[in-house]
């Protein structure tokens, strides 16, 4: 696991060279920080400040990074000397992609089976853009029902609706349309439900 405990975009930059100490959350035992393609920092967990935690956060002082010009930040996480995870944060600050992700791609056609579908706006590396806005229009075809707001307003760059299967079988197709990122579609198979025993 490797997660930044801060937002990374050109709006975070200050005249002092950054917002100061920020946490990086991980169960890795060592981190390497790259800025503009060059290795700038190496970090170990902050066990001194957080001695009671099994996996203490890594604390990074952004004041130690030359943040002009602003660019991408890459964090590599290592376990026992081997690269285990890489996280890249975009410096562009641009909303790049709309993701539509169902928890399940198959439901029972019993009129009750339901799944959550998460929607999010991300940067080019798949990170949620927390300040993304826009109303997403949803359309559904096939033996199912959409549960949730339509159009759907993002909150913190993400949100969810639900799809409920009808008492039928076939394929449900859900299409989400963003004002400037275009449309994305997913399909959920509705399989025949077994007969109920009376």
Describe this structure in words.
The chain contains no helices and 16 strands. The protein is mainly β and 198 residues long. The chain has two domains: 2-89, Immunoglobulin-like (Sandwich), CATH 2.60.40; 97-192, Immunoglobulin-like (Sandwich). It has a five-stranded mixed β-sheet with strand order 9-16-15-11-13, with no helix packed on it. A hairpin with a 2-residue loop joins strand 6 (73-79) and strand 7 (82-89). The radius of gyration is 22 Å and the shape is elongated. Mean pLDDT is 89; it is low at 11-17.
Fold topology:
Elements (H helix, E strand, L loop, with lengths): L1 E3 L16 E6 L3 E6 L2 E6 L14 E4 L11 E7 L2 E8 L7 E6 L3 E4 L4 E9 L12 E7 L2 E4 L4 E2 L4 E8 L4 E9 L3 E11 L6
Parallel strand pairs: 9-16
Antiparallel strand pairs: 1-2, 2-5, 3-4, 3-6, 6-7, 8-10, 10-14, 11-13, 11-15, 12-14, 15-16
